[in-house]
Amino acid sequence: xxxxxxxxxPNGKKVTILLEEAGIPYRIVPVNIGRGDQFxxxxxxxxxxxxxxxxxxxxxxxxxxxxxxxxxxxxMMYLAEKVGRFYPQxxxxxxxxxxxxxxxxxxxxxxxxxxxxxxxxxxxxxDQSYAVRRFTDEVNRLYGVLNNxxxxxxxxxxxxxxxxxxxxxxxxxxxxxQGQDIAEFPYFKRWQDELAARPAVQRGMAAxxxxxxxxxxxxxxxxxxxAKILYNQRARPVPxx
Length: 241
Ligand SMILES: N[C@@H](CCC(=O)N[C@@H](CS)C(=O)NCC(=O)O)C(=O)O
What we know:
single chain; alpha+beta; Glutaredoxin; Glutathione S-transferase Yfyf (Class Pi), Chain A, domain 2; 4 strands; 7% strand
């Protein structure tokens, strides 16, 4: 059984898509990141970077202590290797997938995250127009990278559907909120429509839908406390033992 420490965001949904595609039994352990669960001592022992998702495999290959993995890209490689699906292990096949997984983690995820952050912020912290333009343009560039790749290839890593596709998909669903016009990217759209129609992708995207909270319904002081947790993070001091 896999325990997935999870909150329903794009970085979490990458993993639930793979778990559903591969038919791996799993249990969701909610990490309410708005409330600050990612800073609990128990969570920090699993991920010093205090971000979800984190995976715990109680029955790793070869037995022994449970294996704990943080960073969604590493979790997906681990799970796909464990079940021997969606991540070929021959030299060329492996790196054709790995390069797109790393591309997602280093480019699409962080830039889309900042794009959404500044677009949602409005002018509450002063004029953000440069940041909005910078990240909206960068995300547009990245959709172009996907579109050009999917012009020449059915899936991101070649002719087979792999974790490279699963890891990129959740960050593309909210293209309108990222200030993009999907009509600009027809080869990307063909791929996105195909993935959206897969039942396992639909189940993975819906995982934990009941967990989401409407923060605007919370008392104003709780809203302010939560905004500070998410948006004013600085280095954590070294723990005193
Ligand atoms: N590179 C990490 C990013 C994880 C990440 O940013 N998770 C966010 C939710 S999407 C989170 O836990 N945020 C908590 C916080 O900002 O304090 C991964 O892909 O696992």
